[in-house]
Amino acid sequence: MPFVDRLRHAWNAFKNKDPTVNYDIGPSYSYRPDRRRSPMGNERSIITSIFNRIAMDVASLHFMHVKLDEHGNFLEEIRSGLDDCLTVEANIDQTSRMFIQDITLSMLDEGCVAVVPIDTGIRPRDTSSIDILSMRTGKIIEWYPKHLKVKVYNDATGQKEDVIIPKSMTAIVENPLYSVVNEPNSTLQRLIRKLNLLDISDEKTSSGKLDLIIQLPYVIKSQARRNQAELRRKDIENQLAEGKYGIAYTDGTERITQLNRPVENNLMKQIEYLRDMLYSQLGLTQAILDGSADEATMLNYYNRTVIPISAAITEEMRRKFLSKTARTQRQTVLAYRDPFDLMPITNFADLADKLTRNEIVTSNEIRQKINMAPSNDPKANMLVNSTLSKNATFGNKDEQQVIDKESGQNGEDV
Q1: In a 10 Å sphere around its CB, with 0-12 CB exposed, 13-18 middle and 19+ buried, how is residue 50 labelled?
Q2: Does any domain span residue 362?
Q3: Domain total of the chain
Q4: Does 397 reside within a domain?
């Protein structure tokens, strides 16, 4: 761009401020208004960390609007408004990954969450084939036979508003672990109640009270003796409160017994029992939470927890956001995990060698997995066995058949 055009079109956020702008840009907040808040019972326990771990793992999957072939295999990604919401940004405030994490957290906390299309290319009530431009999660307040009342954030006004929308145009994602997490007497709810009791016990223990018993050298039976004992107690309290170092004196015949040791109970054992039971029902372990789990443990966790949650999201989006015609054309919403994410680099090198030699993936496809630029060599984009000689690999068809016959492996690994 020429220098004059650069000066004409240049813009700086600080130098190009218009001092005459005084129009209303909406309400302001000291915190993000569309961000969901965890219930107070969860914030004070380990539940929020468990939910956040699961939500992060679900959001790490790749959600896409794709087209399948006649055998149900992935054919191509469809560039649409729905795919843009699942891969780039769901709305003006959330990226696609944060949107999926919001869906998962809301679903785990509330048991059921509504995914509401906000902006669409065509009015949803006029046709079943719509192009979704933006989406948000909403809290379901009331259920009707064919409608829902949902509290959803309106980015035009900056307020959360209650709207009534048809069920046919809203994805209603229910927690597949509802009986374990959200039922009133489920394992998770019992654990939350026990943790709240433990918090109450800890607050009482650390409340600053001394819990002292003073044994006076006389029998307290008459009212006069009680009044005398009360004066003695107040005198010791005043000495401790008004003294610079909290020191008080007593008579030589008086005895003081301290009772600020917690009373022994089995509350902690019950919490550990419920926690281990919850971990087993969710497919979690402590190693998964601290990042030291092995490959088999992570695979079990993904198959039992992450995949069912992602399947609930994709199946509901496929049912509500894709028309019958689109499904007939083999369009669908998929969520897949890159199998190389959890693999160490030493194992990855061995697997890459096997995949390329057996002509399953190309060299450039392997290079993409380790964030390397594709090679310009034409061979890097071909499914060839690099261990064979160049003439055998790129020779004519008759020569290749002779080599396959001699190897006795029909062109497989030599």
Answers
A1: buried
A2: yes
A3: 1
A4: yes
